[in-house]
Amino acid sequence: MSNRADRWRFCCPAGHRSWEPTNNHFWCQQCASRPVGPDPEFYELRDRKTNELIERDQIEVVEDGGLEVEA
Questions:
Q1: Is position 48 within any domain?
Q2: What percent of the chain has pLDDT over 70?
């Protein structure tokens, strides 16, 4: 993800910005590096602007490295 605005706005459920999209879910590097803690694989991103959780199937990764969220 190269779009820095999306990185600041959206985070994993634990609040990290080190997530990556996969085919059907998201993965967080910071969650994965902890021996105990949140699952590094998840299906929702937290929108820090609205505090809502947005499901993976509502988010599309677009060519410019950004995200599009379905309304």
A1: yes
A2: 79
